[in-house]
Amino acid sequence: MPDYVISAPKPATLPVQGTDALFPVRRVYCIGRNYADHAIEMGHDPDREPPFFFQKNPDNVDTSGEFPYPEHSKDVHYEIELIVALKSGGRDISIEDAMNHVYGYGIGLDMTRRDLQGEAKKMGRPWEVGKAFERSAPMTALTPIEKTGALDEGEITLDVNGERRQTGDLNQMIWKVAEQISYLSRYYELQAGDLIMTGTPAGVNAVQRGDTLKGAVAGLEPLEVSVV
């Protein structure tokens, strides 16, 4: 065993449906404004401009089913997303080969301190303060692609306290999963353990303590998160 000078942090992992094995999380890439209706509601042109990505930290991933309302924010938003988990990677991956690197899928929430993100945008600063905070990426267990097939269509929804807030279809993504993998691999060396949060449909809004969020993607186990 290595002789660390301090205690090594616990590795970030996701459970896998139907097994006791764990999926180790290396990086978390998130694509912005990848559904046209969401781009419009955020005040942007939904035309197919080049994609852009930001990152959350691996230890932002949380499977506890609880989301603690963060301090220093009064406007925290939900964003329901399909999660893609990679089993391998590389550089300059072709679109045709991209899906061969997919291990499986899950459902996640890109929780966002919208007020802090907005302040950062106005000052031309990075978004991490609004996106990459503790437990900001609630997720389900992963389902291997062998059980689902490639998920390129199917309903994606989010209910808040039993009321439907977000509705879309995976086929409405501006940049499809294979395109996202290929594009990312131009600028990063993708590796096994990487996650991609693939964007959210319209309907994002604020949460309050006591809310219950239920997310669903056709073919996957649902996500349920309580805001505490």
Automatic annotation (TrEMBL):
Record Pfam families: FAA_hydrolase (PF01557)
GO MF, one term, reads: hydrolase activity
Q: Which residues form the Fumarylacetoacetase-like C-terminal domain?
A: 28-227
Tagged with keyword Hydrolase: yes
Q: Which domain of life is it from?
A: Bacteria
Keywords attached to this entry: Hydrolase, Metal-binding
Q: Does the keyword Metal-binding apply?
A: yes
Q: What is this protein called?
A: Fumarylacetoacetate hydrolase family protein
Native organism is: Paracoccus albicereus
